[in-house]
Write a structure and sequence with these properties.
six-stranded mixed sheet, alpha/beta, 7 helices
């Protein structure tokens, strides 16, 4: 039995980022860039007005005031998306709309509210500084500037920048295909008869949802009975994917054939037990360079072991830099007891009150509290060297959601 940190280290040492593919910009959100991108266009591409007002020469208006307004002749108007054929000469002004190109000769914009118009003339009522209310070409993005590094997460901001540069496609790391298999005579799929003794294989769908949540592509292989040859056939089918996950079949019972099958096909066992609860019976293999996870059949243990061990592996394959959930320090709102020597994970309800995080532990009483877990938005992490924590003490919590 190995520590949790050692299990994570062994997994991530084996995992490498996947290959890359080119996708449309509309499909790139939350993907990871597989290339460096540099700007080929300045943003903005030209000097433009930040306000409705007048384009003027600063030397004409620098002494303006309400008591001594400066009079200029209005010689034209210009809105965004058009060029002015006429420049601004001494003693002249051109009316501008926000976003309009600054005409030749002008170097300053006077806001409309700081002017007064009479016939063909305007009066400047306030002094301004040289260059006021003009957005200069290249002020936001310079030509040749790096706008995306290899390994950057593509968010709406990056989409906007790429679109502004005219990129309709982008190279990103591929999404790993994750095969999921549930094992057990007692399991039934959705809409199958339960015959009074079988249970629905909820793990098959929960694991698929977890795969999708972190960006992978789930491939549900269905349910296989506790029969060695049938398990072997399904495992070999699943090995066509990038990652293989089985649920159940990992303990030492008479009908748990998964470890035996993997041994026979030549897979290398990296570890078979972890000092964590729930999730002690997780096994990790490597077969022809592909990672294989055997997760417990217990739904709570499956959820948590995926979160702690499989999720970081999928994220690394997708080129992500941030592999782990954000962690905060929170004040316990209930007592927690566990055995020494194992790391305990407890679903909790995180709240934020008076400048501090609080967490109410929800899952420590077992599956009888399953319905309470629908409110969980964090995982309380109790270290190996602690066995008793009382309400009011501080603990580390992995944030699963931000709805607090």
């Amino acid at each position: 039995m190995i520590p949790v940190n050692e299990a994570i280290r062994r997994i991530l040492n084996i995992i490498s980022p996947s290959g890359v593919e080119r996708v449309s910009l509309s499909e790139a959100l939350h993907r990871v860039s597989g290339e460096e991108v540099r700007a080929t266009r300045k943003i903005p591409p030209f000097d433009y007005s930040m306000r409705d007002g007048y384009a003027v020469r600063h030397e004409d208006v620098k002494e303006a005031s309400a008591d001594s307004p400066i009079r200029l002749r209005e010689v034209g108007s210009l809105r965004a998306g058009y060029f002015s054929k006429k420049g601004v000469e001494r003693g002249e002004a051109i009316r501008l709309m926000t976003g309009a190109l600054i005409p030749d000769g002008a170097d300053t914009v006077i806001p409309l509210e700081d002017t007064h118009k009479e016939g063909d003339f305007i009066y400047i009522l306030k002094p301004v500084s040289h260059g006021d209310f003009i957005r200069k070409a290249g002020e936001e993005v310079r030509g040749g500037e790096q706008i995306l590094a290899k390994g950057d997460l593509i968010r709406p901001f990056e989409i906007e920048i790429l679109a502004s540069q005219g990129h309709s496609t982008i190279t990103v790391y591929q999404k790993p295909r994750v095969a999921i298999l549930s094992i057990g005579d007692e399991l039934a799929d959705l809409d199958e008869p339960l015959d009074g003794v079988r249970i629905i294989s909820s793990n098959l769908y929960a694991i698929a949802a977890q795969v999708m949540e972190c960006g992978g592509i789930p491939i549900r292989l269905g349910i296989v009975k506790d029969q060695k040859e049938a398990i072997r056939e399904k495992i070999l089918e699943g090995m066509k994917a990038d990652i293989f996950i089985s649920s159940a079949g990992t303990s030492s019972g008479d009908y748990d054939f998964v470890k035996e099958v993997f041994g026979e096909i030549g897979a290398e066992m990296i570890f078979s037990q972890i000092a964590m609860k729930p999730g002690k019976s997780v096994a990790f293999w490597l077969w022809n360079g592909k990672p294989v996870f055997n997760l417990p059949g217990n739904p709570l243990a499956s959820l948590i072991s995926f979160e702690e061990l499989v999720r970081p592996a999928i994220l690394k394959m997708m080129g992500q830099r941030q592999l782990f959930r954000p962690v905060v320090e929170a004040i316990l709102e209930g007592d927690v007891k566990k055995e020494l020597g194992v790391r305990r994970f407890i679903f909790g309800l995180v709240s934020f009150k008076n400048g501090s995080f609080f967490v109410n532990p929800l899952s420590q009483k077992g599956l009888a509290t399953r319905m309470s877990l629908k409110d969980a938005n964090g995982l309380v992490v109790i270290p190996e060297d602690q066995d008793w924590l009382k309400a009011g003490e501080k603990v580390k919590v992995q944030l699963l959601q931000f709805n607090f």
